Every structure is written in C-alpha cells, then in structure tokens.
C-alpha cells in the first residue's frame, strides 16, 4: 500500500470559517501575534490569552470539515494516509482521517504549566484557576512562537518513507514546519494546493495546483485514486 503524507496549513481550515493571521494584515482576530501567541504574552497577561483561545475554541467547535478534509478521507480506501497539520483544530479527525499529527498542538486540549501533561477540555472554556493535579495553571495546548515543536521528530520519521507528498493551504513560511518538504525522499512526487503565488525553486517532482483547498484536493484525490486503480 502506497504511503501518502499530507501536510496541511491554515488555508484548509479557513474554508471552514476559521481565520488565519497570515493572509493580510498580520493580525489574528484583531490581535497582534505577540499579544496572543508567545510565552511572553502568557506571562504578561494569562487571562487575555485564556479568553482569546476560549473564543477560538468555540469557533472550532462550531466549524465543520469541508470538501478538502473529506477528500483526504477518501484516499484512505487504497492508500496509507498520514496527515501532518499545522492547524490546532480537529477538523481532520471529525472528517474521518485516522492518522493525524498536530505539530502546533490541539486547541481542544489543555497542558499543565508544570508537568506538560495534557488534558482534554470538557467544556469550551479554560480559565484562571483551572489547575492540574500539581496545582499548576492549565494553559492551551498550543505551540506558541518561540517555543520548541517537539513533534517535528515524529513528522520527519513519517515523511522519511513517503511515496507521495500533498501540501495543502500553506505557503511553507512557518519554520521549522516548513522544512517538511525536505524530509521526504527526493524523487517523491509532491503536490502543492494553494490559490496564491508560491515560489519554490529547485524542488524535484513538484506539481502546483493553483486552487483553493476545497477545489484542488477533490481533483487531486480523484486523479490519484483513478491512477492507482488503473495500475492495479
């Protein structure tokens, strides 16, 4: 069974109504990233961050997977599909994808500021005074700018023997996650689905599909399924 690795970014979730800060003015829901997505911001005003992510969490719970998410599930019929996502929502899982690695954490989980143990959030809110067993404040399970990305090692291992790489809704500008394209075998066919102009020079076997995720992904999925079925 051929292995497909999918690397998804904010563009795929944007079509489900979840805003991204990199599209235009560098703001995320009218906040500067330095105000809501750094360890320094957490130390300065933890309540602001908790309130901010409570709103984001409610938005995620109200959002629904789109055609791009669903098309990736269809690929599991005949491919071994692994999804590596920069997104903190659970839309891939709700669409039905069975193997999803979240590089930047999961907004529906909390993490102890003392032990780093993770907890599923039973409600949509996480507030000051919500503590772990060690009486330490819980924070959103989100990797902020300036923090390490511990799951990059696992992502590299997943990519190392990929037969096909599909990149959806990301400009490959957020590091170290953007290095994902270097982890797959050199001759591995690579597909990039994004409506914007993306300049990637010197990458072998790269096909750019200049469409938004909900259009480009179903087209590619259909072609891959047809091609593989024909080869059998």
What report would you give on this structure?
There is one protein chain. This protein is α/β, with parallel strands linked by helices and 232 residues long. The protein folds into 2 domains: 141 residues, Rossmann fold (3-Layer(aba) Sandwich); 80 residues, SIR2/SIRT2 'Small Domain'. 33% of the residues lie in helices and 21% in strands. It has 9 helices and 11 strands. The chain has a 6-stranded parallel beta sheet. Helix 5 runs parallel beside helix 9. The mean pLDDT is 90.
From the alpha carbons, calculate the radius of gyration and give it in angstroms: 18 Å
CATH architecture of the largest domain: 3-Layer(aba) Sandwich
Order of helices and strands: EHEEHHHHEHEEEEHEHEEH
End-to-end separation in angstroms reads 11 Å
Low-confidence stretches: none
Q: At the fourth CATH level, what is the homologous superfamily of the largest domain? A: TPP-binding domain
Spatial shape: elongated
Overall CATH class of the largest domain: Alpha Beta
SS elements, strand count: 11
Adjacency order of strands in the biggest sheet:
5-4-1-9-10-11
The number of helical segments is 9
CATH topology of the largest domain: Rossmann fold
Q: Give the helix level as a range of percent.
A: 25-40%
Strand content: 15-25%
Class from helix and strand fractions: alpha/beta
Largest sheet: 6 strands, parallel
- Please, what is the average pLDDT? 90
Number of self-contained structural domains: 2
